[in-house]
User: Fold these one by one.
Assistant:
Number 1:
Amino acid sequence: MKRVGKWVFFVVFILILFFTYTSVFGIYGENGDYSITYIKGIQDIRWGIDIKGGVEAVFAPADGVDATDDQMNAVKSIIDLRLVNQNVTDYELYPDFSNDRITVRFPWKSDEENYDPGEAIKELASTAQMVFRGGSEKDGEELLTGKEVNRAYVSTIETGNGNHSIVVNLEFTDEGKQKFAEATKKYQGQKISIWMDDTCISAPTVNSVITDGKCYIEGGSDKNGGFTAEEATALANKINAGALPFNLKIESYGTISPSLGTYALTAMGIASIAALCFIFIFMVAVYRLPGFVAFIALLGQLSVSIMAVSGYFPVFASFTMTIPGIAGMILSIGMGVDANIITAERIKDELWTGKTLDGCIAKGTKSSLSAIIDGNITIIIVAIILILVFGPANIFSSLFGVSTTGLIYAFGYTLLVGVIANFIMGVAASRLMLRSVSGLKFLRNRRLYGGKKKS
């Protein structure tokens, strides 16, 4: 067996502890009166309707519009996309074509404080028609619309003195690129205002002709007159989703109570901690040192699963966590425990044949790998099928219903992430740590690995 540096165990161990702590508790700070989230934790997870409750609203065409079926389908698709852009997967969307009504149900945001359903649904009902106009008045010459925008995304720019401002970047289509170049040439030295519905969101002065088809929008309500992260993300999402074919009015709205009750989440947290303590005692008592290493890897697997739903990494948005999603995470944890038990048992079997410790670890980890891969690959295939079939595309929603679609998707997502995390932590990291720790002289007693003392 190729030896691994003795320091590797401590480096991996410290990294796993860091990821576990930060994924659970997050890292937060303050800048004056504003709180800053550096790393998101469990409290930033958006819990599903079944855990936290949510909002129900009924929308109808405004101004007496008699909507066609195609227009109703377009509204449904845009609301669908707006919810998916916010990474809300636990939602229900029911169009009533005969009465021109659309019923929407979705969970509260993770940082919701006021629980005002009227405020929560405003973003879904906004027309989101973006127009570029010459000058700063609403009746200015229309230059471009949101149809010429290829995509919108959020970033930051440096504003001087080490400060940064959040902006919404726009990339135009080929047609929009040409129109925008002509518009900036015509209005060089003047203002071009950007309107969202009937609101001017920015009115910058054109300093030069822009020919690369890229620009950014500044503005917002923070103390410096810029966007907050939430405002910028919401605006980019609405631009990407497109404009509704007609104005929507809110027929009725209200709140939905969680099906599990107020204290269900706390109870689940206590049960999870108790389960982890039991697993730790069992693994150490039965498998000794490999069991201890396996438990550390299990914490790493759990932290990766939490990261995938909390938005720990900025490039990945937070995920709506439902009861089936928690079930998928628990099942993947079980797969992680099973993988380490298989490896520990194979090492123990090898130790009782009288081979050297290094040889037993090498042979045991190698012989267990095929069984672990077979079991996990099967689960990965099933999880991918669940995600593709019951994901936001709603391929089978007509057969099983929209609610079922979202719930099964959540289960498949957390199951897939958990199994992938098992390969990273439960297979790769745990074997790396075991090979490293076996190089420490005081930990080379065969009994620590489940074998008998060599005669």
Number 2:
Amino acid sequence: MTGRVLILSWEYPPVVEGGLGRHVRKLSEELVRQGVEVHVLTRGDQAQELRAGVHVHRVCEPPFPHDLDRFLAWVRSMNHDMRRAGLALARDFDFDLVHGHDWLVARAAATLSTSLRIPFLATIHATEHGRHQGWVDKPPQSTIHATERWMARRADGLVTCSHYMRGHAADVFDVEEDAISVIPNGIDPDDLQPVGDLDALRARYARPDERLVLLVGRLVYEKGFQFALEALPAVIRRVPNLRFVVAGSGTHEQELRAQAQRLGVAEHGTFAGWIGDDMLHSLYRIADLCVVPSLYEPFGLVALEAMASGCPCIVANTGGLAEVAPSDDVALRFRSRDPSSLARMMNKVLTDDELRDRLVAQASEHVLRFDWSDVARQTREVYGRLIGAHAPVEETPTGVGTLSSEPR
């Protein structure tokens, strides 16, 4: 499929809240290289620009709210603005398909699909049900979950980043697995370049004779960092010259700091707070081990980035991580939520240089499977199937598909 697509995303560089914006950028740019004309509708200051061949259109936004209830109203307003902007664009361009990323843009994407009589493809990057271990019966989680469920049933096609997520989405939203395409996230090792003096950065966190363990991600419960901290005392007894750095911020940060104090490991580590990509890529290069202890992980990009950077990994045997690290040849796996299992794996890697070297060598080959050109090719195939099979949809009944109401 070549043609012209309209992609909706609530973030796109330089507006970046997390991994979604980076994913949409890399996918969009590779689609352009493969002959697709890509227009991205997102938010930000500059109204229109051409970035690496991608036509980026931005809607202005009010100040970003940090209260979740106000955030939901902010999302509704953004969708209204995106819908209007998308309809204006459609006066100048004939789009073949609209591709929305996650629930944050589902309302606008679905309405544009209906108005323009083109298919709607939705990529589900994560779910509220998964993030909160099924506790989605009360607002605001119930509102987000209902929107996700509505999106999954309204879309003409769905994409998830792993087979785990396909089964999860089918179960949670009661849709057929056959309707969901699995297309993994991609990785470009050229994007993982470190900056600055790595020796000086390493000295900031550990001495030359110390082992440095990296924990990186949003500091929220589902990322499982509490279990990694609980594993540390047993590891330090075996590897007393251990240091750790926690890179990231989030609602669980103060609790994690307090836990480190209670466990007596705080003096062995540093909570670095939020870090930019350049700093993260550098940390991958100086760490002796990266631990990804997630309870819920749709894919596992941190593990993939660490492996591509030459940093050995230990991952929880859960979710998409089991697909990113399908065997102990590329990364060791431990039982999720089991600190003793994690401690044993950490001791293995930190005390066995031959094992570490083998993991690094095998992982460097494994990551080549997650190539953005292949991700874009698979995405184009999904586009082609949907466009070929699409019949114009009727207007969605008021109260279900309109931007002015929440899903029932």
Number 3:
Amino acid sequence: MQYNTFKMSISLEGDQPFENIPSIKAKALRINLNEHIYGTFAEIGAGQEVARHFFRSGGASGTIAKTMSAYDKAFSDAIYGHETDSGYVSESRLKKMLDHEIDLLESRMDRKNHPNKMFFTYANTVATIDFAKKYKGHGWMGIKFQTNSKDDFSEIHIHVRFHLFEAKAQQEALGLMGLNLIYGAYYKYDQPRKLLKYLYDHIDSEAIEIDTINFSGPLFKKVDNRLMSLELVKNDMTKAVMFGPDGNNVLPAKVLYKKNILAIRGSFRPVTLVNEDMFIKSNQIISREKSYSENKLINLFEITLSNLKSNNGDVNEEDFMDRAKLLCALGHTVMITNFKEYYKLAEYFSSYTEKEVVLTMGVNNLIEIFDEKYYDNLRGGILEAFGKLFVKNLRVFLYPTKAKDGTIVNSNNIHVANKMKNLYKFFKYNNRLLDIFDYDESLLDIYSIKVLEKIKKGEKGWEKMLPQEVTKLIKSKNLFGFK
């Protein structure tokens, strides 16, 4: 199946808006006819796809200082320097291109003669679909720009993944998104959420995926990149995003590629001693195995979009940021996904690594996995889901719970539907389920929802249910309604 890349009612040469969206030519012309906008284009790997929109629209002589495509690797190295671990289609390469071209622009254009020029550099480094059509392709694009000639530069970096099956169509999609990025940088920089949505103007939303974006510089000093990451998932521009302990978004492919993965799903509202114990005990089990290598293991704290939504379906961003701040302060990498079902999460991981994947979960989560109602959308039902969930190297570490009568529930006495029992036994006795036995039983009475209630009501005693660092942060930053 090949997607329609563009909304075909838009003519490349036309000026008529579609659904109040400026035409392709109108956007390029607005940039070209602004006498103060002036910059360069450096495009590697997919031709001069962005620059051509500005040339074809007319009036580009006052806007474009230079366009170039250092396509040959040796020549590219001579200009931007050699790449080592990051490769040529990387954010590192993009940043070098942006920095180098801006430096050249400033050194060659005397500010005395051009006091009002607002400089910019647009760059991309892209690998389109390969000849065998095995790898669909991906790339980085970005802009370094100013909206006042006396200001420092701001930057927007974007990573895209293609879902089209023809290189030409991918190049055309890239050209439009690059045009939208430049237009948005100058005319929507003060509305970054709208800027994100406008990146898809005249592009089929299924043609290209944005899975990482970072804003930086003086124009975006009030922008939290974690919120922009959340916007990508909310707008269905991607299914999963990640941000590191420093709060900046990171490329999932780079983090997950050929890594062993330990993922813990939760609300983390707030992070409790139970969450901490699940994480510590899971790591201890993994570290005792012969294949263990610390630098080849990535730990992830995953939150689903559905877990972030309130009863009315909206995402409480303040609540999201409270969770994000806590997890980042604890030094964790956070993953936000639109994978309500575990098999989708497993399928996502398997697209990046063939190494071992461990999902640590509580008993109630495992019971839900064996509930057929979650797989009505699959033709093969629960069997199809389990084929995707329990891929070759995936295991589940099961953290116990305490029943109302005080009984400790683990994999040996868990209750699943009668017709699911044989399926359950198959996976349990094939070493796909592993109980965490050295848990702290005193923690089994801790539930984050009860902790949250105590915090909001100003009741005492919640502090002992959380790690000390979490308690300090909640009190010092007034998180989760603490007063």
Number 4:
Amino acid sequence: MIIGTAKIYLYASWVHSLKEKRMLVRSIIDKVRHKYNASIAEVEDHGLHQSIVLGIACVSNSTKHSNSCIQNVIKYIEQNTEAVVQYIEIEIL
């Protein structure tokens, strides 16, 4: 069993309330869950308005597939949100 994980740190400068942040995060999570077979959730900075940290996980039987799944999700998030990607941590276990 191979597990691919990633943490994506995003910054949304235009967000001024937790309600706006929740709407943005919910949109990203729903789109990723609909398009890819991966788990995704907000994992840190719940109380900070402009900072978003998303955790992604993909379980597979091959390292190549797990890495590909994580990379595809990251690319999709980068292309489909106005938030700026600040940092990405990827780990394949």
